[in-house]
TrEMBL record:
<dbReference type="InterPro" id="IPR007848">
    <property type="entry name" value="Small_mtfrase_dom"/>
</dbReference>
<feature type="domain" description="Methyltransferase small">
    <location>
        <begin position="206"/>
        <end position="320"/>
    </location>
</feature>
<feature type="region of interest" description="Disordered">
    <location>
        <begin position="1"/>
        <end position="28"/>
    </location>
</feature>
<dbReference type="GO" id="GO:0036009">
    <property type="term" value="F:protein-glutamine N-methyltransferase activity"/>
</dbReference>
<dbReference type="Pfam" id="PF05175">
    <property type="entry name" value="MTS"/>
</dbReference>
<dbReference type="GO" id="GO:0032259">
    <property type="term" value="P:methylation"/>
</dbReference>
<dbReference type="InterPro" id="IPR050320">
    <property type="entry name" value="N5-glutamine_MTase"/>
</dbReference>
<keyword id="KW-0489">Methyltransferase</keyword>
<protein>
    <submittedName>
        <fullName>Class I SAM-dependent methyltransferase</fullName>
    </submittedName>
</protein>
<keyword id="KW-0808">Transferase</keyword>
<keyword id="KW-0949">S-adenosyl-L-methionine</keyword>
<dbReference type="InterPro" id="IPR029063">
    <property type="entry name" value="SAM-dependent_MTases_sf"/>
</dbReference>
<feature type="compositionally biased region" description="Basic and acidic residues">
    <location>
        <begin position="10"/>
        <end position="20"/>
    </location>
</feature>
Amino acid sequence: MHPHIPAHIHWTEADQERSASWRSESGMPAPKKVVIADDKTPADLAYRLACEGTALLWRGDFQNARQLLQALARRADQKGGKPKRVKEPKAAPTLAQAFHLHRQAQSQRARTLAMLLIPFDADYTIPLRRAPEVKLACNEAYGRGDQPFVASLRELLGVIGAHEWRKNGVEIPALDARIHPHYGVFSPIRGEYVQLVNDAPLAAGARLAFDIGAGTGVLAAVLAQRGIKQVIATDIDQRALSCARENIQRLDLQGKVQVVQADLFPEGRAPLVVCNPPWLPGRPSSSIEYAIYDPESRMLRGFLSGLAAHLEPGGEGWLILSDLAEHLGLRPREQLLDWIEAAGLKVVDRIDVRPTHPRASDAADPLHAARAAEVTSLWRLAAA
């Protein structure tokens, strides 16, 4: 279900049939079965109902709902820690299998935890005791409110968290400034790829660059600060376009960076074309995951196949890509090299950096072997 297609949930309360609009930015379908829950609902019962696909519409104290959600998460994690007895196969799963099992488990956990629902009035007031003021956060995520609705508490906490990110921003050493991500736009918390773009050798007097899939606008801002006279940053997503424009304005770079809506390339050619596509081939399970998962490597292949036609003679394309997909067995290195060659491109150079994010060194992570080996690269490509 697309988040903007109206849907409704139905339940019985005080012997009356009730209904409300359903809202889910992750595209989760409206729960078919809904029961009322409050401060007296035991966590074990709530967990059993949630696992069965029965949603709990909360009528108690808001802070108690948060505590119940934590209790559900603990139960989900304990359950996930005890693997079911499987007769075969005996062999340990490959990393690709481990990755798919991990995603499956995460998806199941998310579905279960999304079963605790919160009511909203049309102006984003939550009609519960001790409920926080969330109007600004909801306006940023959803736009202007126009009718009462119900959404999952877990989604609301994500909306509140995104509002904090947007308010406080993310420190970007390469810019000596902060970038403020919007709800649904991937936050540049993995700074190693930004640093690669800041450090890669730039042709003297470079006057124009394209940034394909701008997101928050962080790479366009880095290129502009490095002295490129004009950067055209593209994205297809409306939230990303608003976010990039706001960040460019905050950094006072609107004279140098133009943000335009386009599927991949703007019109024309440039001496430098930069792209940081999603790093893993796969199907996103929510809108935010489009920054991580690239279905059938569509964006990666689209960038490579269209690059030569958008490069000026002697120009360079910079592809920023992690090799995590290779370590997970999702996309072999040979396939990437074949796509580069088939697009009429050659590799001029490759600059590598090891990630420093905490998960790279977390031995408890089920994908630790792949994350520990991961390298992020800036591929310097030119027309063959």
